[in-house]
Write a structure and sequence with these properties.
The complex is a heterotetramer, with two copies of chain A (about 180 residues) and two copies of chain B (about 500 residues). By secondary structure, chain A is mainly β. Chain A is built from no helices and 16 strands. Chain A has two domains: about 80 residues, Glycoprotein, Type 4 Pilin (2-Layer Sandwich); about 80 residues, RNA polymerase II/Efflux pump adaptor protein, barrel-sandwich hybrid domain (OB fold (Dihydrolipoamide Acetyltransferase, E2P)). In chain A, the strands form three sheets. In chain A, strands 1-2-3-4-5-6-7-8 form an eight-stranded antiparallel barrel. Chain A has a four-stranded antiparallel β-sheet with strand order 9-16-14-11, with no helix packed on it. A four-stranded antiparallel β-sheet of chain A has the order 13-12-10-15, with no helix packed on it. In chain A, β2 and β3 form a beta hairpin. The N and C termini of chain A lie far apart (about 50 Å). Chain B is globular, with a radius of gyration of 24 Å. The termini of chain B are far apart. The chains are: A mainly beta (about 180), B alpha+beta (about 500). At the A-C interface, β4 and β6 of A face loops of C.
């Protein structure tokens, strides 16, 4: 059975096959033999090619998060693949962190013309309207979350083509807020 | 003074401090009512309180900052007192007055002390008058125009700090170095301060760049007794926000400790202080120290003092507010061992510490000897954008500082918060840094020593393998796999207990 | 003496104490190997250790008591030392000798001290010689026949206690009151002792019926330094098993504390004691005290001493075993506040405390200020019939005894162990009992004051309602209910995080 | 939907019906309106006729355990009912505690002639054989668990009809060990 995940490093495919009481896991062109020593709630104790691996896992919808042993947490999204084949696509790391893909599914296009939300938050103020010509550094939108205020500024002199948010909107990180074009 | 019995407290706060207050009340046999926003109806502080009342919409200005509504609820529900926690209305003198006017007890100092210490220029003047050393600077009458400030700045030299008289939390603050335009900085600071506090007054302080932030906890009662509970070192700050705090300070020696403690008591007495408060100082490499400000409330980092002194500060706050006298004198107090606190914040160290919101899919905290957790969230709770990012505090106590650091490293390794990004990797890096370990961190530590830090999460292959195994187990259970299935009863809302084991047994 | 570096420790125990030892080793930077039985391959102590080796079948005699095998594993795996914990091989002098003979360090006292204190009659004689008061009794040469014992009994009067020279844990013990047949009791005790210990030797003690069990913790190093860490009161016992322990003793005053402490140090010195040990005394209402026995190991209740003195006893054990000197003198030691420990046992108070076995479906423990949990199990683990019933210890520390009792009440209320029966309801009743609260509990407390206790779980209607709601939620999720379903992904092995909320948001 | 549980007090039936965002629970002849405030893992926060009720629940197979608020834990077994009707059968409390039904399903008959395991444990010794006549108080079987030894004795003079265990057997509480009859 193939499983597909999207994380900071791109899309990865993992195949898991049951062989009696062991599992064979196909990942990154290598096979590993896995024994489940214990699975209790979010805690998994595995033996991977004889090496112990303790993990905590959590899921909600397609979101996946895992903490390995004493390490840090990692986030992924489970994604569907068109077929049951192990197609592995590595994409370039995005600027944003793993697992924090925008709610709308696909990350907003990271073009110079698109100004996107730099964090989950609420739009505190929209300072521009379509047709405005703004100078480099001009504040376009003020975003607020957890007592922190973030000003999103024009990267260079530009024409405001489209404003995709209004004051009070709650947005996820990566959401398109303002579309600019060369002025 | 006569005691005023407190039988029922309205908790006008949220998160870990509201939970902490509810716990202290439980221990004192005092009933609690949580005043919660609509976003917090099922939050941990709402769950642990005896009762909960929704006071308004999620934004704090519509709920946790609605003093009138909070007082109304407290009266309607028969409360004797309101505990404001930290932040929100805790340092609002008008609220403290309104609470008292409504015949309720405000668990904190008198409004006059809050007001004095809230006006940073007036506080400086009062401290100077009391013989408390302040950071060299210029506040004039507290309402100086740009011309006077520019002339004062010339006398003080650079680098300088422009600060808002009404300031707090770094807003309305500007660093001015030799190459900067003072006039422009003053205008920017005034604009920001006006916007943030509705008050554009400014004053100047010499910038002490590479200092230690050391603060003294004080407790004072109605009778005039005032003691100090020694220092906390909070030099590890990011953008004026404390991240890691400890007691005792690795920098303070017995002489500095005693001088600072006596000075803090003098500062508290000078403003007729009652209840718990903290006098913050900047301490230079030469062990000179200067008054920074006084926080007229319980602080986030109070647990390190509790663990080293054995005094429960929140209970002490409530008892003092009830008119009880301090049950100990200065000579009864001492510190034992070393304590460290780490703040677990919902912020993403890989994305410039931007707030991270969403459901906490899993929260597991460490336990064992010398480990304390003050958490405001649990598995399934939400980290919402409306409030600050503090999720929980991990506090450790051990025989000495190296043992405490090691204990904290293990405690952080045993902390799991899945579902939102947290600063855990950053905290671990702070603990591992030679400067921190040497006890040499100053307020410049984060910007200087930690500047190059990037999270390194290594190869995710083990993570992917684990996820695939877990997803496979889930699918097998759903399909009623004969080995996994156990009658297909494992796919249920309480399946934390669905243990599974092969071999051996 | 030269230090002997310890870099790798074999933990020859299980459950909470094995977890506790592993944690101490982690803090000291020492690698750990858990020697586990087949039943414990996935147990918590196996999980937290750096490595784990299966040493035998589930019954302790095939695994945790297999000294030869444990030593072999320790050598094969490059260990420097073995920590025996409590119980199992911890007080077996032959094992301690074999460990040392194998070139390993036994973390505990020398075999001679274990042997002396293991022979209860010899220990009495040694204590008498050292000027330590013992319970009035008769041990002769330790191998007295019935005739001599009957004559001695006539001199001592009744009530009497017949005890096994090789005894421990209440076996081979008989109470003889005025109306009882001494000859029959002697024969029964001898039979039982022979069966339990392979040693039928007996001695007599006057029965002190209504006494306090107060014990002194000692620490001694190779150099001959020996300190005492004050007392623990363990009077709350059921069938000679401690249930609730505390420090300081509510009965001890400064004078008694000092006299007992000095006596305990004398007792330890008399047997050349090294490492951590406990001298147990029976204390009468008149504050006379008598040596009972010395436990030559770490004790279950050691945390209450750690919390009141600030000393980590397990780390101290390891450091002493490594040849380090005690880093403190008697004058450096003091106690602060009050600490209480409750033992959470898998036993059913509704069925005469019969052991309860099975999977722990859910284990949730309290946290917060002054609360420590030393647990040996977590959610999904097994309580098996092969080992003793101790699952976890809840320990609290507060400013004074009433505050500690209140904190413990709240901590017990916040403890959930589902899936096996536990003594939690009983512990809560002990904490609530006026005799305990008054600090007046003696060893007769359980049999006298708690005699009438029955659990009262009230009307189960709320429980049934809750279960039905939970089962309904589960069914709705399985059927992909559009409100509950969220894409049907919630029925998975990690569904602890499957939060669900209606209204308000 | 009807749910049936067996606990210390006998069999109980509970009906749960969804009505919009509320639930109506039928139990013991009364109706209650239940609102689920929060369900996160084992934690349920309910409003029952406006009264808050916090609980922790856990299940394995048919076993159910619940802890209400700050109270003690209670155990039940979920049982099947023949029909979807709310048949409520209250049986007399058994001597053993709730939720500790013997593994074999039905509790062993609690007749004076049947000697059953008083706890989960291992048979350390069997002291009698079929045909023996034993006096009152004579040890029949020694049962061992968690370092505790329990002697099961003849309640009165009796004839050993049947011995249903042997040394080393692992038994659940309530399992029949020895069958006696009047001698």
């Amino acid at each position: 059975m193939w499983f597909h995940y999207r994380g900071a490093g791109g899309n990865r495919a993992v195949r898991v096959e049951r062989r009696g009481e062991h599992y064979v896991v196909h990942l990154g062109g290598r096979l590993r033999e896995v024994i489940i020593r214990r699975a209790a709630g979010p805690a998994l104790d595995l033996l991977v090619d004889g090496r112990p691996l303790r993990a905590l896992v959590a899921a909600e919808g397609d979101r996946r998060a895992v903490k390995l042993g004493d390490g840090d947490a990692l986030s992924f999204d489970r994604v569907d693949a068109g077929s049951d084949e192990g197609v592995e696509v590595r994409i370039e790391p995005r600027a944003s962190a793993p697992g924090d893909a925008p709610a709308a599914g696909r990350p907003a296009p990271d073009l110079p013309e698109a100004v996107t939300a730099s964090m989950d938050g609420q739009i505190a103020a929209v300072m521009v309207k379509p047709g405005d010509v703004v100078e480099a550094g001009a504040t376009l939108v003020v975003l607020e979350a957890m007592k922190m205020e973030m000003r999103l500024v024009a990267p260079r002199r530009a024409l405001v083509r489209h404003v995709a948010c209004q004051t009070g909107d709650v947005v996820r990180r990566g959401r398109l807020l303002v579309q600019l074009e060369a002025a | 003074m006569a005691t005023r019995p407190i039988r029922r407290i309205l908790i006008a706060n949220r998160g870990e401090i509201a939970v902490r207050i509810a716990r202290a009340c439980d221990e004192l046999g005092i009933a609690t009512i949580a005043a919660v926003s609509e976003a917090d109806q099922a939050a941990m502080h709402a769950r642990v309180a005896g009762e909960r009342v929704v006071v308004g919409a999620p934004p704090a200005r519509d709920s946790y900052l609605r003093g009138d509504r909070l007082i109304e609820v407290a009266r309607q529900r028969g409360c004797d007192a309101i505990h404001p926690g930290y932040g929100f209305l805790s340092q609002n003198p008008a609220f403290a007055e309104a609470v008292e006017r409504a015949g309720l007890i405000f668990i904190g100092p008198k409004a006059a002390a809050i007001r004095l210490m809230g006006d940073k220029a007036a506080a400086r003047r009062a401290m100077v008058a009391a013989g408390v050393p302040v950071v060299p600077g210029y506040e004039g009458a507290g309402d100086e125009d740009d011309g006077r400030l520019v002339r004062a700045a010339d006398r003080l030299g650079r680098p300088l700090l422009i600060k808002a008289v009404a300031g707090g939390g770094g807003r309305g603050m500007r660093v001015v170095r030799a190459e900067d335009d003072l006039g422009e900085a003053l205008r920017a600071a005034r604009r920001e301060s006006e916007k943030a506090f509705g008050d554009g007054r400014l004053f100047l302080e010499r910038l002490i760049d590479d200092a230690r932030h050391i603060e003294i906890q004080v407790l004072a009662d109605d009778s005039g007794d005032c003691v100090q509970l020694f220092e906390r070192d909070c030099s590890v700050q990011r953008r004026f926000q404390k991240i890691v705090e400890e007691a005792p300070s690795p920098f303070a020696d017995a002489d500095l400790r005693q001088r600072m403690g006596e000075t803090a008591v003098r500062a508290a007495r000078a403003c007729g202080y009652v209840n718990a408060g903290t006098v913050e100082f900047l301490v230079g490499a030469d062990r000179s120290f200067h008054f920074l400000e006084m926080n007229t409330r319980i602080q986030v980092e109070h647990p390190v003092t509790e663990m080293t002194t054995g005094i429960d500060l929140v209970k002490a706050q409530i008892r003092i507010a009830a008119g009880e006298r301090l049950p100990f004198a200065q000579a009864d107090l001492s510190t034992r061992g070393a304590a460290i606190e780490c703040r677990i914040n919902a912020e993403d160290p890989d994305a410039e510490f931007a707030p991270s919101t969403g459901r906490i899919l899993l929260a597991e905290f460490p336990d064992g000897p010398g480990v304390r957790v003050d958490a405001g969230i649990g598995t399934g709770d939400e980290a919402t954008m409306h409030y600050d990012s503090l999720l929980a505090k991990i506090i450790v106590h051990a025989e000495d500082r190296p043992a405490a650091i090691r204990r904290m490293e293990l405690a952080l390794a045993g902390t799991a918060v899945l579902g939102v990004a947290t600063n855990l990797p950053y905290l671990r890096a702070v603990l591992a840094h030679p400067t921190f370990r040497a006890g040499a961190a100053t307020t410049a530590f984060v910007s200087r020593d930690m500047a190059g830090w990037r999270s390194d999460r290594g190869d995710p292959e083990d993570a992917l393998l684990t996820l695939a195994i877990a997803d496979h187990l889930r699918a097998a259970r759903r399909d009623g796999d004969p080995v996994m299935g156990r009658g297909g009863r494992h796919d249920d809302p309480w399946c934390r207990a669905d243990g599974y084991r092969v071999g051996g047994r």
